[in-house]
Amino acid sequence: MMIRFATNSYKHDSLPISAQRALNLYAERQPQDAKSPVTVHGVPGITTFATLGEGPIRGFRKLGGILYVVSGPWLYSVTNAAIPVVTRLGGQILGSGVVSMADNGDQLMIVNGSNGYVYDTTAGFRIVSRQMSLPAPTQLAETLFRCGRTLLEKEATGIPYRLIGIGVGDIQDAADADPMDLADPGATQRRKVEAAIDAVRAKLGKESIGKGRGIEVKRR
């Protein structure tokens, strides 16, 4: 028995007129002397590569040839293989929104806006989280740096850290950021300095200007 395929498949808005539809396939008419008058060819598509928890997928990053994915509250690793190996590494990463992820080659930093989580590829998970509330919204990197430095001083007990991150939350309107503070007379000058730096970077590139503490010192 020969099954006839439609070579001009289409689906009309009114199905009684035409309900033909080729899904993930297309038919191609062959010459009269071919073994079959019509061949059917597949088209590019997607298939499930791996399943990671119940979701939602909140972020992912590649480190050392391994894909690390935050799904729901958990961190997973996915190997690069035809049949991937999925491993739940732990975490209990709070929230359900998108996370920020960064690495230094050995450790993975995950920030959910209020907490930071560190996954070491050899030692596993560790969370170090401190937070500080500002009296007003800010757009100044200098303000974030000073807050981070204050929080880090409490943790600087001699234990080495490979990765430090700062996250922000409760985003407000830019018009409300950095109001005048009579108790901090240097705030106005810091705002002007950062505005000037941003203007130069916008014109000449990110690496064109910066503060002295941002200069990377190469150790011998």
How would you describe the overall organization of this protein?
The chain is an alpha+beta fold and 220 residues long. It folds into 3 domains: 1-45, no CATH class; 48-129; 133-168 and 179-205, no CATH class. Helices cover 14% and strands 23% of the residues. The chain has helices at 141-153, 187-204; strands at residues 25-29, 38-42, 57-63, 66-71, 74-78, 86-90, 100-103, 107-111, 116-120, 124-127. The strands form 3 sheets. It has a 4-stranded antiparallel beta sheet with strand order 3-4-5-6, with no helix packed on it. It has a 4-stranded antiparallel beta sheet with strand order 7-8-9-10, with no helix packed on it. Strands 1-2 form a two-stranded antiparallel sheet. A hairpin with a 2-residue loop joins strand 4 (66-71) and strand 5. The longest helix is centred in the C-terminal third of the chain and has 18 residues, at 187-204. The relative contact order is 0.08. The model has no long low-confidence stretch (mean pLDDT 81).
Topology:
Layout: E1 25-29, E2 38-42, E3 57-63, E4 66-71, E5 74-78, E6 86-90, E7 100-103, E8 107-111, E9 116-120, E10 124-127, H1 141-153, H2 187-204
Antiparallel strand pairs: 1-2, 3-4, 4-5, 5-6, 7-8, 8-9, 9-10
